[in-house]
Design goal:
Blueprint (H helix, E strand, L loop, with lengths): L1 H5 L1 H25 L3 H15 L1 H17 L2 H30 L2 H16 L6 H8 L3 H25 L3 H9 L4 H34 L8 H10 L3 H12 L1
Helix pairs in contact: 2-5, 3-4, 4-12, 5-6, 5-8, 5-10, 6-8, 7-8, 8-10, 11-12
């Protein structure tokens, strides 16, 4: 009641700003892209990472989405997932860096992470609907609350895993605390941090599918509709598109 009476105007203005100025233009841009552009982009990225061994499979997966008839819904899923991942990592990685510097803060942050991971996924939809109504903003914030946890957890683990001798060598070399973080700890912890980002993407995909319950128009909504309409084939194809 207090939130409704005192924060409604602020939250509504914030929601409308995100929708009109950021989310809708970004969604329209992705939906309007010809499928060839994402295809070439992911194949190029795959080739740069592991050559044709990765470029060909990811290209085939994108082509599967294109020929399935769910391309617009897939781009909405990409838009929601990408937006949520950017926000979640922007919250999780700095939180993990901050927590790694202090044992008490780390214990508190990890406790929050453990608490959030005990809730069933659909529980996250309740507070965001209360704050932002039904729609993309509520869905994205539900995804963020669910998905920032691995980014924070793996960042804490990675920075704390840096060998003491490397830290000692940096101190002897005259590194300041900022230089220590930027030139020593973060580069050494990068594999663990990127693993956290990978898990954040996975968490986001899972939660985006669940967020279909609050009115999104992505692949998760297609899965939900297929259940209601008793069309298992349609739901299976939509689910495979999410996995792709």
């Amino acid at each position: 009641d207090w939130i409704t009476l005192n924060l409604y105007n602020v939250l509504e203005a914030f929601r409308l700003f995100l929708l009109v100025e950021i989310l809708i233009p970004f969604r329209n841009f992705l939906v309007g892209l010809p499928w060839v552009v994402p295809l070439l982009l992911v194949m190029w990225l795959g080739f740069e990472l592991k050559g044709l061994r990765l470029a060909v499979p990811v290209g085939l997966l994108v082509m599967f989405i294109a020929i399935s008839g769910f391309w617009p819904q897939a781009m909405v899923t990409v838009y929601m997932t990408l937006t949520a991942v950017i926000i979640a990592t922007a919250i999780g990685i700095p939180t993990g860096i901050w927590a790694s510097k202090n044992s008490r803060v780390a214990a508190f942050v990890l406790g929050i992470c453990d608490l959030l991971q005990t809730f069933p996924s659909f529980v996250y939809l309740i507070p965001v609907i209360m704050l932002f109504k039904i729609g993309d903003v509520a869905a994205i914030f539900a995804v963020v609350v669910y998905a920032w946890v691995p980014a924070a957890r793996y960042t804490i683990f990675g920075i704390r895993k840096v060998p003491p001798e490397i830290i000692e060598a940096a101190i002897i070399s005259g590194c300041t605390r900022r230089q220590m973080l930027r030139k020593v700890q973060l580069p050494v912890a990068l594999p663990e941090i990127m693993l956290g980002v990978n898990q954040t993407i996975m968490f986001s995909l899972v939660m985006v599918a669940i967020a279909a319950f609050i009115g999104t128009r992505d692949l998760g909504n297609e899965v939900l509709k297929s259940v209601g309409w008793a069309e298992p084939g349609r739901g299976l194809v939509a689910g495979l598109c999410i996995a792709s």
